[in-house]
Amino acid sequence: MSTEYRFIGKAVPRKDARDITTGRAKYINDISVPHMLYGKVLRSPHPHANIRSINTSKAKALSGVKAVLTYRDVPDWKVGNPLHLRVLGSKMRFVGDSVALVAAETEEIACAALELIDVDYEVLPAVYDVEKAIEKGAPQLYDIYPNNIMPQIAPFMGDNILQNIIMGDTEAGVKEADVVAEGTYEYNNIPNPLPPEPPGAVAEWEGPDTVHLWISSQGPYFDRLTLYYMLGRKVNVKVTACQCGGSYGSKGNSSPIYLQAILLAKAAGRPVKLCLNKQEHLTAFTLRLGSRIRGKVGMKKDGTVTAISGDWFVNTGYFSMITQGQVAVGLGEAQLAIRCKNWDLKSKTICTNRNASGWIRGFGGQEFISALFLLLARAMQKANIDPFEFFKKNFVKNGDRNIWRDGHWWTSKVIDFTKAMDKGAEVFDWHNKWRGWLKPTSISGTKRTGVGVGVIGNADVGEDVSESLIRIDPTHHAMIYTSVCEQGTGQRSSLCKMAAEVLQIPPERIYLAPQDPGISPYEFGSVGSRGTYAMGAGIIKAAEDAKRQLFELAAPLLEASPDSLETRDGLIFIKGKPEESIPWRTAMGVTRTIFGYGRHEADYSLCNMLMSFVEVEVDTETGKVDLLRVVNATDIGQIIDPPSLENQLNGCIGSAGIDSAIFEETILDESNGRMLAANLIDYKWRTFADLPRIKNVIVETPFPSHRFGAVGVGEITTAPGPSAVLMAISNAIGQRVVEYPATPDKILKALGRIKESSA
Amino acid sequence: MRPFKHLNVENIRECVSLLQEHNGRAKVIAGGTDLLGVLKGEILPESPELLINIKGIPDLNSIREQKGELKIGALAKLSDIAKSSLVQERYRALAESARAIATPVIRDMATLGGNLCQETRCWYYRYPHVAGGRILCYRKGGTRCWAVTGDNRYHAIMGGEKCFSSCPSDTAVALTALGARISIIGPEGDRIVPVTDFFTPRGNILDTNEIVTGIQVSAPPAETRQSFIKFSLRKPVDFAVVSVASAVSTRDDICTGVAIALGAVAPFPMRATAAEKILIGNPLNEESIRAAAAATVIGAKPLSMNAYKVELVKTLTQRVLTQTPL
Amino acid sequence: MINSHSSNTHKNGVMVMKEKNIKAGRKAKGSGDRNKGSGVNPSAGYISMTINGESRELMIGKDVQPWHTLAYTIRETLGYTGTKIGCDQGACGACMVLINGKPVLSCMTLTVECDGKSITTIEGLEDRETGKPHPVQQAFIDHTAFQCGFCTPGIIISTKALLDENPSPSEQEIKEALAGHYCRCISHYHVLNAVKDVIRKSEVK
What we know:
The complex is a heterotrimer. Helix content of chain A is 26%, strand content 25%. Chain A is α+β, with helices and mostly antiparallel strands. Chain A has three domains: 31-124 and 197-245 and 250-284, Alpha-Beta Complex (Aldehyde Oxidoreductase, domain 3); 290-461 and 605-750, 2-Layer Sandwich (Aldehyde Oxidoreductase, domain 4), CATH 3.30.365.10; 464-600, Aldehyde oxidase/xanthine dehydrogenase, molybdopterin binding domain (Aldehyde Oxidoreductase, domain 4, 2-Layer Sandwich). A seven-stranded mixed sheet of chain A has the order 3-7-1-14-11-12-13, sandwiched between helices. In chain A, strands 9-17-16-15-10 form a five-stranded mixed sheet. Chain A has a five-stranded mixed sheet with strand order 20-21-29-30-33, with helices on both faces. The model of chain A has no long low-confidence stretch (mean pLDDT 94). The longest helix of chain C has 17 residues, at 188-204. Chain C starts with 8 loop residues before the first strand and ends with a helix. Chain C is globular, with a radius of gyration of 20 Å. At the A-C interface, helix 1, helix 3 and helix 17 of A face helix 2, helix 3, helix 4 and helix 5 of C.
């Protein structure tokens, strides 16, 4: 398939490869501007408290301190969805909440100033459990949200976002089922995606109404747009996106940091850098949603799902950045993974007194299916259905109708994913390794292996709008103007490749304007696997537009119609007559540039697919789980850049993905609201020394609606893994393990090897 | 970090004299891999006004055997201990314990003295000040232990007394099995303390102005089989969840000498004396090993979340005695 | 006379370093015998080091404070921002540099303890005259052995150190040498390919 393309499908060094490998790439904490100050945040020691009084006079008097701000000193700027969290408030809602801000000449002075702020708190009772939080009499986090239930809206997703799936008749569905499973299942270990680079911002006011903000982000244009509204439409925010040191969605929740930097810079009259350290990153920045399902599912022996009903309680922590949107996508993705005519599933987004959950790769889908699939597995087990056959049967088919995140019915226009699934099963050797529910694949001494499988799809591959501009020059170079930001997917380079293919000039001759949304047009952001399809569509259309204008200029010179022309390596000719060509500069003249414009409109009719097969080994004496092998299977239509795709698929074990079933978790002590794994030794992550074997099975069945037949997959690679791992562990040890993560204590308990403690 | 002064010293006397002069407001820095983390986290209410750099003191990093005794200076790097052919051949448990620590680059920076004297890893103790205020506990002069009523999955299942954290030092476990002694020097002079007496429920027995200068181990009998096994969630990086070191001598299949030390189960390494009694003078077989393993946890009092450690101790003891890898 | 590096004042119980009080200290004589000696406050004077082939003299109390880590000095004082600070506690490897050719976590190293040392950062690897990337850097480019790139400088430094000491490590040895590097995008597999490629190419030579 890739042989018909010159550049698409071929590995090309990334545009920023040299900068990254030589240390030239500039990340947010590398930014330094003259007269810059350092910002620090005083954080609440209480999970829930009101500030009775706060005295900053000693802090202000410390030499080198240039600004100290409390809730009394700041405008009523709010973040969140809807806008509900004040940038600084008098109420603290989690341990780590922002009490006051300081800007000083050095970090040491800023830290010293924090010690000099005297605060008197009225400590309030705290609540951590989603169902306790909605009970009558529970501590209230927000007066405007009774019972701690967030409103079910997300304006940027439209007026009717999907918050409940209600269709068909679940009672009838249960009646026609052969087996019914019921229970409560959770994915509540709220792991931290923990990019290597902590979040931060640098702010510098350039005038009374203009502020320049440097950020680390996946969607700088969108950040700029939301900041405009958060700042009351009164401030012009110029955003410069730095090289982003990993985000996996999480840095989309940086608005509180942006506002704090902006306010400090205003108060100090000097630029301020506010960068969190790793400990703040672990305790005060984006976590995965907490997810609990109380549900019931009906299933036929042939794997048909006849009913899914229940309640999905979503724990968003102390505020919602976009949680309701994640709920909408999660509910949408569940319908793609599980064809079912009868649903009665209601969600509630609930706030509690802990550090906030926010948007992360997997975007609600991972959190939902990690709980839901445990319930489905129970039914599959009862009906003795091979889970691979189940997922293969139940994944969305072309022509299926389902409700996507916007609350509207969409008819899925999808390729047949079973080809990729079968290939994945073959490479994994699923049919030999699967021995039945709760049966190990092999036993050797105290070690047992087991296998599991999971699947996900996302119809956001074509989500939202992307605009691109491309400028072509008479020297047959081109410059792309896009607000697409580089955060690891290599997308900026892949866009060059797509433009190169359209214009038939080598990608090395295509440059990228700085990732500045002040220069470049609208871009929703490099999220949701939309890069290849949606952002790609934008750049492809822009390149086509530029090419069309070029051919219109060339046509009279070649005495032909523009439609009959072709170009290659800067030469234009009539199709089939390359020997009679004119260079671009002859058609354009040296004093001209051509701008092409392209726009992709949201399209939710197609989706991607990722199926993950996992094999684990459990030592039944120690409870240790080793992840032996992962096979990912996907069909992405057309590979754009092989190494970038492999990297993204390998990412299934990063970003709080698969390992959230094995050892990753945020540890919340409910007796004092503290998050205990507050350093990089106590928070567990996979090292070079513990790598599983990974094989990525990539099928290419072209997607007709993309110029190169391609669709993205990076965002969903983490989602199917966790539930697949618990399935594999359960099969290995012959006991159901349904708690995340399955650490040795839980395995030993499931095996009955732990006597209850006497303490 | 909060500001401090920094001085290099050339000999131990200078170091002790400075410690005495600052009387608790100065700290010794060797590898710095624990100290700098403690200072950056601002986990302690007091911050030193002076760091005394002892890395320049000559001969404090030697590894040698003299008159049937292994002597290692406090400044010996963990990587040097792990790679030393002397230690590998005759004090194997120590080499294996050093090898199991952290990562290669940390082992190249960290020292034996630092590994023995490092602060506990209890996550209440280590809670970073920046994240909402440090946590005070018994170990810091406060009035409670948060682990007892909180998340104590990594904490002690025995030996706790007001403080229930577990000793993080891997070398201490091996040294306990080897019956090592620790050399200490202070303003009052020097002293030698068995490693089993070095640690206390709330730290170690060093007085404010004392430092560790090295360790000594009498060479075990030639036929002694030594082993160290460490259980953690990840192979590198992690501190032990549970570890066990053993030194066993047999003659004609009868156990003539045995030492079993348990790590990360108490605020100090524990000699499993009940287990040792079962083995000594008896054949070393599956049955006796199983009985010994069961005896290691006699008297264990797990907290609400760490009963699994009891199982792990038994399992690891069996494996270390049968030399079965994890 | 070398003045005390600061007059520390205590303001509200906090020690504050007043940079302005520092007077110029005369350059101490001889390399290596500064910063030693009992009784003399060696925090006065200079730290001399070579960084990426260039000698730098840092005045203690002005260019560098005793509590500055090498990572901080490299980045903030000397402007080599290629070395990253991730966790700032030695657990992620992003701050790896070479000191006298050996890999060291610069965030866990005090600059004042680096007198007389030769430091190499990621910026110092490419050929100074031709600008050509170091073979390790080139292999990382060829294999796209990175995604967000934040961990990459540290990994490249560790790789160079490994191969300088052991030109033909096994896969296991490579993994162990890199085990302290936190990479969250999961570029590990491509990194291993890149490192093996360097080994292969150097064996062919």
